[in-house]
Amino acid sequence: MNQRAAARDQRLQFNVLSNLSASVWLATVTLLAVPVLYRTLGPDHYAVVGFFLLAIQWVAFLDLGLSPALGRFAAQQNRPGGSLAKLRFLLSRFELMNVGLALLLMGLGAVMLQPGGSLQNQWQLGAVLVDNIGLMLLGTVALRLIANLYRAGLTGLELQGRVSFINSITISLRLGVPILLAAFGSLTLFIFFLVQLLVGLLEATILRWQLSRVLGSQQLPIEPQEIRRHALLGISIAGLGLLWICGLQIDKLVMSTTLTATQFGHYTLAIQIASAVTLLTAPLQTAVLPRITAQLAAGENRQTAQTYTLSCLLCTAIGLAATTAILVCGEQLVSLIVGTGGNSGTEIGNVPETSVDLVSTDLHLVIAIYVFSNAMVAVMALSYALQNAVGDLRWHWLGTVMLAAIQMPLLYTVAQRGDIQLMAQVYLATMLGYVLLWLPQGHSRYLHGGHWRWLRTALLRPLAFGLPVAALVLWMSAGQASVLTKLAQGGVAFLLVASATALSNSAIRQWLYVRLGRSA
């Protein structure tokens, strides 16, 4: 039994590390690609890339929950006594529905892209998205919808090393090929989306092949009632995700109608840099959901609480460290990425004065606020994962509806005013309020050991250790310096604050002590 538990722990550590490696690679490639794409395409065409990234975030919630439902069922079957034949049967049924939804999505999108459609009438980006570019964007999104189903199956089986490897290859192609084309002066918006479409087709094909290899061809039928139960839970998951994405993206939707294309490109740049913390916390969420699902299915409530609490602590450590790093070097990072120039006829020196002021003075503060907000979102995502693993989402639905009822009108109002820094502050305040006021209720129902032990271990103790270190790092890094020096200081700040925050947990200290002892 101890050997089996040790093997499972090693599998979880491997999955987290492989996911983290893929995320770091994604962040690295993105960091290289953003300035190249921004300068080559220009801020107005880069806004279309930002719209594409927004659409990719939406697609995860447009499959009516088929992908998360399949992933959850895969995690339940990934234990002694589980049946891969049943999983193969459910995949075959969900696959047909998923392809149908992808085709429906493309059809609806094509109607919206027609001259006189809602995109062209309401969004300044509509004219750019019409015709081939818009159709390739829709095709790429549809392929991502299909690929997500196979990715969820592999993830639920805790074969995340394979998924991470495939993700690393595809992101290298998605962004690496445009970088090379830009270096030779051959990159246009049309070519960028053609590359995305071809890579999307390759990704879906490889993921399907890998999952089919694992499951084999044998199928064991499932009762229609059980299929319906999984599908209904998936719909509930999708509804929650859609409500979340509406609350998290309403500011961007409004901004796309009120800002110029250039200003929206700058704002998109800030959001994309702030999403780096999501890249660092997503590996934890991806690895933890199938693990706690399997633990709860086996009745291991205490182990579930330990896994969940440790994951929340690491999200807090990453968020605080990333916020500190942005405060140290964010202004220099933005200046390095934006630079000057662009191919779309809009030079940085010629854009409206308000847009230049946003880039040069306030944008790094907006990024820092969004970074810590994204860390809070990661903690809430883990709370959702806990209730998803239990199979009871009613309480999370109630909390999400209450948050949306407060947050969405506030963000919509501030977005209409165009005050981006105030909007970021409102966003952070609502997220902190949810974590501090609502999570105690959910934890009292679903978390072994209750809320206050979680709060002390996963939030209060790490902040008590990390905040003084962050303040010291900010004080030592104050003052003018070269861009490279500031970027180096930001990297050191991230490592110091993350280490101090994470080491507040005794389990992490013990794990590190054992690892160092083995190395010695």
Key phrases:
520 residues; globular; mainly alpha; 19 helices; 85% helix
The helix-strand sequence is HHHHHHHHHHHHHHHHHHH
Q: Which of globular, elongated, flat, extended, rod-shaped describes the shape?
A: globular
Helix content: over 70%
Report the radius of gyration as a whole number of Å.
23 Å
Our estimate of the beta-strand percent is under 5%
Provide a descriptive summary of the structure in words:
85% of the residues lie in helices and 0% in strands. By secondary structure, it is mainly alpha-helical. The longest helix is centred in the N-terminal third of the chain and has 58 residues, at 2-59. The chain is globular, with a radius of gyration of 23 Å. The two termini are 28 Å apart.
Task: Please give a quick description of this structure.
This protein is mainly α.
Summarize the topology.
Blueprint: H1 2-59, H2 66-77, H3 84-113, H4 118-122, H5 126-129, H6 132-156, H7 160-183, H8 189-215, H9 224-258, H10 261-274, H11 276-297, H12 301-338, H13 353-390, H14 394-417, H15 420-437, H16 439-446, H17 450-477, H18 483-502, H19 506-519
Helix pairs in contact: 1-6, 1-7, 1-10, 1-11, 2-3, 2-6, 2-9, 2-11, 3-6, 6-8, 7-8, 9-14, 10-13, 11-12, 11-13, 12-13, 12-17, 12-18, 13-15, 13-16, 14-15, 16-17, 17-18
